[in-house]
């Protein structure tokens, strides 16, 4: 891409290699900003480079696998599910997940109600249970359309709901994050927690999809 852009400046291109990930392509605005702010905060002693490394490593451990465990536990343990719906922050803490400075609200999908999560302002997302948000979650199109025409958005994710189902859209904020508790699919009645957790997808916990029933004879 970079070697074919139109430029009106005239530096020479003596030879051309395919772009490399470690090439000295100019940094984007956000990369420059991140480096400047990080170096300034380290220079000022607000935190050390070791703290940055620890945080990056921590982010690496946060994936939708954690959310899947929460959902599977709630499917299997009615008392846990009750605690989860009453106080999501405390209930995920029982599984060792720390919501840090944010509050977690868990909303349950039922045959009558389907929940969908968005952050209309930016990209607030329940990272301790789902990791980093997908790019589409941060897109302007999703952020505006999820509230204006949620059924059309759901349809584009392949989710068609019967007309009688109520769709509730939840707008996340800096200090309140949502997690959808999807419906447990039929055909999983004798599944254990690990198998159930594997069935749970990130998108189903954002509410753009539903957890699909297992292919027949997938697990015995
Ligand atoms: Fe946000």
- Spatial sequence of strands, sheet with the most strands: 1-4
Looking at CATH, which topology of the largest domain would you report? Nitrile Hydratase, Chain A
Please provide the count of β strands.
Answer: 4
State the CATH superfamily name of the largest domain: Nitrile hydratase alpha /Thiocyanate hydrolase gamma
Beta-strand share of residues: 5-15%
Residue stretches low in confidence (pLDDT < 50, at least 5 long) are: 1-10
Helix content: 40-55%
Helix and strand succession?
Answer: HHHHHEEHHHHEEHH
CATH architecture assignment of the largest domain: Alpha-Beta Complex
Can you count the helices? 11
**Which CATH first-tier class of the largest domain would you pick?**
Alpha Beta
**What is the end-to-end distance?**
49 Å
The largest sheet is:
2 strands, parallel
The kinds of small molecule bound in this structure are: fe (iii) ion
What is the total domain count?
A: 2
Q: Describe the oligomeric state of these chains in a short phrase.
A: single chain
Bulk shape? globular
Q: What's a concise summary of this model?
A:
The protein has helices spanning 29-43, 49-61, 64-76, 78-86, 88-93, 127-130, 135-138, 140-148, 150-156, 193-199, 202-206; strands spanning 103-108, 113-118, 166-171, 176-181. The protein is of the alpha/beta class and 220 residues long. The protein is globular and about 55 Å long.
Q: Which helices and strands occur, and which strands form pairs?
A:
Blueprint: H1 29-43, H2 49-61, H3 64-76, H4 78-86, H5 88-93, E1 103-108, E2 113-118, H6 127-130, H7 135-138, H8 140-148, H9 150-156, E3 166-171, E4 176-181, H10 193-199, H11 202-206
Parallel strand pairs: 1-4, 2-3
Helix pairs in contact: 3-4, 3-10, 8-9
């Amino acid at each position: 891409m970079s070697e074919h852009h139109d430029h009106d400046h005239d530096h020479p291109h003596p030879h051309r290699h395919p772009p490399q990930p470690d090439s000295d392509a100019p940094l984007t605005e956000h990369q420059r900003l991140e480096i400047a702010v990080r170096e300034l905060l380290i220079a000022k002693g607000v935190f050390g480079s070791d703290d940055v490394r620890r945080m990056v490593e921590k982010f690496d451990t946060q994936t939708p696998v954690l959310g899947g465990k929460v959902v599977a536990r709630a499917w299997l343990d009615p008392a846990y599910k009750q605690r989860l719906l009453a106080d999501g922050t405390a209930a995920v803490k029982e599984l060792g997940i720390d919501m840090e400075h944010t509050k977690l609200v868990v909303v349950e999908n039922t045959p009558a109600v389907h929940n969908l999560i968005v952050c209309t302002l930016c990209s607030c997302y329940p990272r301790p249970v789902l990791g980093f948000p997908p790019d589409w979650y941060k897109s302007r199109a999703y952020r505006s359309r999820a509230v204006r025409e949620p059924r059309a958005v759901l349809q584009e994710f392949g989710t068609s709901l019967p007309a009688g189902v109520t769709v509730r859209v939840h707008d996340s904020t800096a200090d309140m994050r949502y997690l959808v508790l999807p419906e447990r699919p039929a055909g999983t009645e004798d599944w254990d927690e690990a198998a159930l957790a594997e069935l749970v997808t990130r998108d189903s916990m954002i509410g753009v999809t539903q957890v699909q029933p297992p292919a027949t004879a997938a697990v015995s």
